[in-house]
Amino acid sequence: MSYPIQRPRRLRQGKAIRALVRENDLSPHRFVLPLFVVPGRKVRREIGSLPEQYQLSIDCLIDEAIAARDAGVPAILLFGVPESKDEQGSGSYDPDGIVQRAVRALKQNVPDLVVITDVCPCEYTSSGHCGILKNGYLDNDASLELIEKITLSHAEAGSDMVAPAAMLDGQIQTMRSALDSQGFSNLPIMAYSAKYASKLYEPFFKEGTNSGPSFGDKKSHQLDPANSDEAMREIAMDIEEGADIVMVKPALFYLDVVYRAKEQFHMPLAVYNVSGEYAMIDAAGLLGRLDRDAIMFESLLCMKRAGADIIITYFAKHAAALMHQESTFARSRICEQNLVSK
Hints:
- The chain is α/β, with parallel strands linked by helices and 342 residues long.
- It is 42% helix and 17% strand.
- The longest helix is centred in the C-terminal third of the chain and has 26 residues, at 316-341.
- It starts with 14 loop residues before the first helix and ends with a helix.
């Protein structure tokens, strides 16, 4: 025969056929939208390096959360930007702190939205580091005491899930023990298990939370981008200590790690499509170099294909809204066809 019997193109010749054999699908119920809450009222301050993302006062945060929920996004990841900072990061566990007040307001006004709170001191320490410093070095065990206080304050405020980002040794065990002993045994932990020391966080630190380190870097506790075996060890330790969901961060540059994590552990797996990844795609779209929405969907689908169950992304609301529009259009076309056939 001049041609092979197998012709893969047979199953690519039309949109409906391609959909029938598609191996992975995106759905808004996979998305988590990061949001930034700040003190004040009627504050909706666009983040320059993250167009269409904002620092929001609590009243505006509620509006944004409702819009996200209505677009089909089931959950948000909340970051606080406090008025003041100190060496001990004391504002991070203040019962009247910005995140604690925001959580109470969200659960009162949007009770069906899952509110995940970031548990890391870096937004609250004057150094911008993820805990307590001693002689210029991050003191792991002293910082665990701070992590415990933050965790319990978020739980008491009504957080649906806590997400520790500091990459401290033993932080999951510390959090799980504290939660269980204080009556929060049902509160899940989403661990930033494989968080790399990446420059892709720059927009987040410089403009999102204003929390970049005042000196040095975070390479003493975040992972070396050259290592993936180490990431597997970190994930395994977090699972053993009680993590309910594990995470790889960043997402796009680390899809090999995402794939390995899913294949090895078969745990609920999140990825964080970080600020730098968002900024690159958005900037390329604005310059006319790439089709922004097409690349957005392709990148999110690649995360899902690699093994991600949960995708934390600044694109969440926009992507969900576009998917809803496409679904509504498809349903209207089917209705029109049915009417014509009748």
